[in-house]
């Protein structure tokens, strides 16, 4: 039986230099997979390839049994939340959340109704008529998350979504996001360079080093039984 998300032998080269290769992993439905690795190790590039914003140089990706590597970005059942929430400044919060539904040919009234539901899910009911500049960084990131969730993606990609927030808010947000994703049964990949964050967020962790996974396992197994001295060293740092 294949898994809900199945990535096999994925690789990416820019010109002649390889960013990553031999990347294989699978994720079960409703699971959060944390990818942790140092800056520059290729995590963002991997997410951008999964989202269709870049093309893989090789390998295959199946979501719910369907191949997606030849599917255009906007037709993939995947949504990406960036490090910096890129909201439209001239649109209200509610319009920002509902915007992506336009391309699914959903009528305006229904779009706004659905957006309102997700505004509630991210605890921002009172801010539907506000503009992005009136919100804090954490609030903007909540809206960015609602904007992704309203599209009902089969796979949600989170690229260091808390990196622009201060430490206290980051800790609050990660607990809150994990709870929300679990309540909604969302299948997600959460990318971070922070080992503690990866352990807190993931059901499964992949340690990304040297352009491939050095180890994939539960947070407990990776932390307690690092597969290589490199993984042990990486997990030993900054705790
Ligand atoms: P991370 O997210 O782990 O910090 P990135 O995926 O941003 O890593 O970058 C991995 C490597 O890929 C870096 O060396 C970066 O310079 C390179 N890279 C990313 N995008 C491009 C591009 N469009 N062209 C050439 N090299 C790139």
UniProtKB/TrEMBL annotation:
Keywords: ATP-binding, Nucleotide-binding, Transport. The keyword DNA damage does not apply. Coiled coil: none annotated. It catalyses: a quaternary ammonium(out) + ATP + H2O = a quaternary ammonium(in) + ADP + phosphate + H(+). Its EC number is 7.6.2.9. Residues 5-235 form the ABC transporter domain. The keyword Cell division does not apply. One of its GO terms (molecular function) is ATP binding. The complex is composed of two ATP-binding proteins (OpuCA), two transmembrane proteins (OpuCB and OpuCD) and a solute-binding protein (OpuCC). This is Carnitine transport ATP-binding protein OpuCA. It comes from Salimicrobium halophilum. The lineage of its organism: Bacteria, Bacillati, Bacillota, Bacilli, Bacillales.
């Amino acid at each position: 039986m294949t898994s809900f998300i199945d990535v096999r032998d994925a690789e990416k080269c820019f010109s002649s230099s390889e960013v990553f290769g031999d990347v294989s992993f699978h994720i079960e439905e409703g699971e959060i997979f944390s990818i942790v690795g140092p800056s520059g190790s290729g995590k963002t590039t991997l997410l951008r390839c999964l989202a269709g914003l870049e093309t893989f140089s090789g390998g295959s990706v199946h979501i719910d049994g369907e191949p997606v590597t030849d599917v255009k970005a906007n037709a993939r059942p995947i949504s990406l939340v960036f490090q910096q929430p890129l909201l439209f400044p001239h649109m209200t919060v509610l319009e920002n959340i509902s915007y992506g539904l336009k391309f699914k040919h959903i009528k305006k009234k229904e779009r706004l109704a659905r957006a309102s539901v997700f505004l509630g899910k991210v605890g921002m009911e009172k801010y539907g008529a506000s503009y992005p500049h009136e919100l804090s960084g954490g609030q903007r990131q909540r809206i960015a998350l609602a904007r992704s969730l309203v599209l009902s993606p089969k796979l949600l990609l989170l690229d260091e979504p808390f990196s622009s927030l201060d430490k206290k808010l980051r800790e609050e947000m990660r607990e809150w996001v994990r709870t929300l994703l679990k309540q909604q049964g969302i299948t997600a990949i959460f990318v971070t360079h922070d080992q503690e964050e990866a352990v807190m967020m993931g059901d499964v962790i992949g340690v990304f080093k040297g352009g491939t996974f050095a180890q994939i396992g539960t947070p407990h197994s990776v932390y307690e039984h690092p597969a290589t001295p490199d993984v042990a060293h990486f997990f030993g740092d900054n705790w």
